Amino acid sequence: MVFLMSDAFTFGAFLISYGTTRFSQNFWPDPNVVFNALPGAGHANLPLVFVSIMTFILIISSVTMVLAVHAGHNRNKADVQKWLLWTIVGGLAFLGCQALEWHHLLTAEHATLIDGKIELISQTTRHNPWGQLVHGPEVTAALQNSSVHTLATLVSEHHLSAASHAELMATPKDQLVQLISNSDAVHIREKGPVAFGGFFYGITGFHGFHVFSGVIINIVMLLMTRNNVFENKGHYLMIEKAGLYWHFVDLVWVFVFLCFYLI
Amino acid sequence: MSNHYDPTKDISPSAAYPEVSVSHHHSDDATFKKKVWKTTLILSVITIIELAIGFFIYFLHKGEPPYFFILLLKGIVCILTLAKAYYIVSVFMHLGDEIRNFIMTIVVPWLYLSGSSSLSWQMDNLIRICVTNMINILKKLQCLKLTRAPRQRSLPKAKVTSLPSRIYFGIPERRLRDFCF
Predict the structure, then answer these.
(1) In-domain check, residue B133
(2) What digits encode the pLDDT tens for the residues B61-108?
């Protein structure tokens, strides 16, 4: 209980520092722009969808944990095992989703206006491609200054031409610039606040670590149940404590979800 | 004599401290299941409402965003999240079944910490938006006056152009902005 309290204060401090930094900036990226991908859906613009799947996974795994604890009260070994297993499955599914999300953010590159030219950068703790949108003549000037490789990548990624990347590398620069500036699909943004990446990866990573240790604890509980440890002890109080930890992890996610994805 | 060890007696923590322990006597399976499903449903419905508001904010962002309205929607989402947290802590973590003093020991420090910090951000944001709106409205009023002024024609042009900085309720605009931001 004391551990959960102190852990809660740690998360609270993280989220408060995040909030303070966020509100001290004039501009902060819109979460619907940053988190709009769904694995397997390509470039489709689907804000909030993937993270809502993750949220539901965690809520459901919390419910299965409640059922496991309740089965423990009734000293029903088979049910404890069944519900613990589902909780572990939920935890692993959540971790898998988070890995996919991080992978996408770290590898997907976005056209960003840096020092008068367009560069392709991804979301890391050093760069943030989610600044304000750039329009009109500024874009055309920046496109002229950018490398042919960047332009060819932009054209082929947004399917503006049927030609392959190698063929596009050989086409004249003016033609590529024309293709990109005539298209509505290419959004070019300024650099965004660098602090965003650090806070996002730091806090969701710390939460992901908690989910991971929760899964380990649940696996240990499952093995102990299988080996009749609780049956011999006469009570399943340990499961209850693991359950408290798991609900705490769910509780923290509710706030992380609010702070990073909803507002 | 009553202190002697009695093997028939239940010495588990739940029996020793029934009011503060983590173990409880659940009434029966049917009411328990009903409570769990009800809570699951409430949590899911709140999450869906939050997501709906999130999408709504996204579509508002596409046009000229009405900041005050978006702030209001975000405030609603915050309150809904607190409701979710309440259900998780009180039903799933069984805090609702504990004695009152224990609940207060947990909840009061949290209310203080989260309340004071979130209020200060929200107030900061709110004041910014209110002042910006106020300045815009006053500017519009002033603009109306300025457009009407040349019609009088008796006013020398130099006086209109040499208006120093705008003054609202006796406070120069620059001072007002410096004070607020």
Answers:
(1) no
(2) 766 667 778 888 888 998 999 899 989 988 888 877 777 777 777 778
Secondary structure class of B92 (helix, strand, coil): helix
Topology annotation, domain A29-107+204-262:
Four Helix Bundle (Hemerythrin (Met), subunit A) (1.20.120)
Centre a 10 Å sphere on the Cβ of residue B75 and count the other Cβ atoms it contains. 14
Please tell me if residue B84 touches chain A, with a CB cutoff of 8 Å.
yes
Q: Which residues are bridge partners to A76 per DSSP?
A: none
Q: How far apart are CA A248 and CA B146, in angstroms?
A: 60
Contact predicate A109/A120, CB 8 Å: yes
Number of domain units in chain B: 1
Distances (CA, A) of A83 to A90, A151, A217, A247, B40: 10, 53, 14, 14, 16
User: How far apart, in whole angstroms, are the C-alpha atoms of residue A69 and residue B28?
Assistant: 14
Q: Give the ipTM of the model, two decimals please.
A: 0.83
* CA A93 from centre of chain: 13
Cα–Cα distance list, A68 to A27, A39, A237, B33, B34 (Å): 45, 31, 11, 12, 16
Q: Is residue A103 within a helix (H) or strand (E), and if so which, with residue range?
A: helix A77-107
Would you say residue B151 lies in a domain? no
How far apart, in whole angstroms, are the C-alpha atoms of residue A194 and residue A174? 33
For residue B2, pLDDT beyond 60: no
Q: Which of A20-24, A88-92, A259-263, B31-35 has the lowest mean pLDDT?
A: A20-24
Nearest CA in chain B to A11: B114
Helix, strand, coil percentages (3-state) for chain A, rounded to 5, are 70, 5, 25
CA distance A172 to A184: 21
What is the pLDDT averaged over residues A141-156?
84
Is B102 domain-assigned?
no
Q: Does the CB of B89 have a partner CB in chain A at under 8 Å?
A: yes
Average predicted confidence (pLDDT) for chain A? 87
Cα separation, A225 vs A219, in Å, equals 10
Task: Return the pLDDT at B181.
Answer: 47
B54: containing domain: 27-97
Say if strands B171-172 and A189-190 run parallel, antiparallel, or are unpaired.
unpaired
User: Do residues A130 and A34 touch, judged by C-beta distance below 8 A?
Assistant: yes
> A1-40: per-residue pLDDT in tens?
678 878 887 888 888 888 878 877 778 888 888 888 887 7
Which of the residues A18, A24, A46, A66 would you substitute to probe the B interface, choosing the one with the greatest number of B C-beta atoms within 10 Å?
Answer: A66
CA dist., res. A253 & res. A249, Å (int) = 6
Q: Per the domain annotation, does B140 fall within a domain?
A: no
Shortest Cα distance, chain B CAs vs residue A245, angstroms: 9
Residue with tokens 């996204």: B58
